[in-house]
Amino acid sequence: METVLENRTWxxxxxxxxxxxxxxxxxxxxxxxxxxxxASSYGLQPYHVFVITDQELKEKLKPASWGQSQIxxxxxxxxxxxxxxxxxxxxxxxxxxxxxxxxxPAENLKGYSDFMKSKLLGLSTEEKSVxxxxxxxxxxxxxxxxxxxxxxxxxxxxxxxxxxYNKILGLDGKNLNAAVVLAIGYRSEExxxxxxxKVRKSKEELFTYL
Length: 210
Description:
alpha+beta, NADH Oxidase, 4-stranded antiparallel beta sheet, 4 strands, globular, Nitroreductase, NfsB-like, oxidoreductase
């Protein structure tokens, strides 16, 4: 139990990464699997995750990220992109997977299919995009915490221009939108922010027992 809290205390939004230290392929695989196993509403996972290591591409993304050095200095840049719109195919493809994985006849899932479609397909395009971005954030949070368990540093980043990311990564034609970015790697010894005490609300301010 102490390790759980220690890892979360150790984690901070890394501002300066060591450009010489890279996340190993094995650790990256663990992070990606932890992300794949993340919870999402109905299990639909209405997002896609881009893993960026190409330095030239990072350089292109840096100006669209308010010039923040984490984009070019981190080992990997992870872009979580939510679906901007969807139709029945989102539910149909998921239930095909359920049928195959759990060996359940597809016709036995029709009731669940109808229920999900009744809740989701009536949403406006804007509401769909908001909902899918929330699901992307669930996966994003899981990756960040898994990284802390592995003592891999991260910097969660919302300071970027999504429209420019979408253009650079070709997301517009894929019905995707860059929702949030996670830089991963290892902190530089020169990053002074690693020594700052963590500032959070007190338990009394944050929690209410009913």
